[in-house]
Write a structure and sequence with these properties.
Elements (H helix, E strand, L loop, with lengths): L35 H25 L5 H31 L41 H9 L4 H15 L5 E5 L5 H5 L1 H4 L4 E2 L2 E2 L2 H4 L3 H15 L4 E5 L4 H10 L3 E2 L12 H10 L3 E4 L4 H12 L7 E3 L11
Parallel strand pairs: 1-4, 1-6, 4-5, 6-7
Antiparallel strand pairs: 2-3
Helix pairs in contact: 1-2, 3-11, 4-10, 8-9, 10-11
Amino acid sequence: RFATAARMSPFVEVRQASSGRADASGRAGVPYAPREGLGYWRSAALLLGRQQAELSALLDAHGVTEAAEERLAEREARLVGRHAAQLEEWRAIAAEHPRLKGELSFAPATPARRLPDALVFDFAPAYNFRLEAFAFDAELRRVHRAIRYTPALRAVTAAARRALFGHAAYVAAHLRRDGYEMYCRGAGLDFYRRSRYGIAVTQRMCFPSVDDVGRALRATMRAHGIHHALLATNSRDDTELSLLRAELPTLRRWDAPESIPREWVPHVELLLCATAEAFVGTVTSTFSASVLAQRDARSAPRNSTSFFGVPEGWLAVP
């Protein structure tokens, strides 16, 4: 959608809170009023085209000198601040008038305005989504039911499943590793007072050991009468991966062929996990949360999903 890469965003209100917004002091979980989030996203849909046209025009009008960069930063900040205020102003109107759709015609047509609407974040927004114990509200469940993967992605996933397990059932696990130190041991979880989704996060939930992973997978495989397991992970620790294979000889990983675009890999792994007989995830990971949401969309029972280090019975049953 963006003619020029955006460097600032008016979507400052969108926080990855446990449920509801984070307030000015950083306290997460401040409840939303009914329909508040729906109104916000409708106002975003109405204003996105105009705001991006204005931002693109501003960026195109400036040179690349140091002085021009300083002027641009000031003007960009003012423009983005005005855009954020507009989103707030239109939120109440959009909430009260659900038939308001499309984009407001404040700007002339541009090539960018002829592209499909796509608002993309570099994190998992949780605006007005209830997430405690993953008790997803109706809006979020509806979003995940509406997701359609391309035929090409589905075909790659089916081929991967056949190559790994033939027609046999399998248990899937997602182990979040690289790049997680700062989040789990630093400012990431500190923002949420070391609690996510209504549970106090322990280090074993963030960083399960090889023994923890082995015990959890063996218990899940035993409970479901399954002998095969899939591991989806971003770990680059070859020693740890070797220990896991020694712990569970039937554990497999999907090695994407060179012909598969790199950006497809997480989507294929998500689909493999979502369609597994059972799933064990990392509770602090939005990838694992997305797997659970996709399993819900496919009517997989909630008792077929668990998380490393999380007590049984914590996960909500919708």
